[in-house]
Please model this.
Amino acid sequence: MHRYITHTALIAAIAILSASCSAQTPPAEPTTRVILTVSGGIAGIEEVTEVHRDGAVVRPDGTTATGDPAAVVALFEIIDGDGVFAGDHQYLAQEPCCDRFTYSITVERSDGTVTIDTMDEADEPEVVAQALSAILRLSG
Model:
């Protein structure tokens, strides 16, 4: 009987400690702003789009609009998900010539900034392609 009580008490203590440890782990900092810089092409353009968590979108022409709420939520779910920053941060085409566009996605969080670079015909992960597509749709 004594051994049963001791094991039960030990299991209860471990459960309490585990719960208190996991409760103290801070969540990942959410993204506050995503900036896309598109450059290159035959005209050598450089266009910047900013998407803020509150839905404000600063478009390449400098105008500010409110992005479609569902599209903004979808973008930040992609960016804050696990896959975007899991791999490399630079994805280049095998032959980086020929008037291709380069895309730099800069993600700002309260705990730092990360930039992912890709370009036309690069083999970036699907989640990076989804983020790029979502930002381009919001850019107007």
In short: The chain has three helices and seven strands. The longest helix spans residues 2-23. The CA atoms of residues 104 and 117 lie 4 Å apart. Strands lie at 31-40, 45-52, 56-58, 64-66, 90-91, 101-109, 112-119.
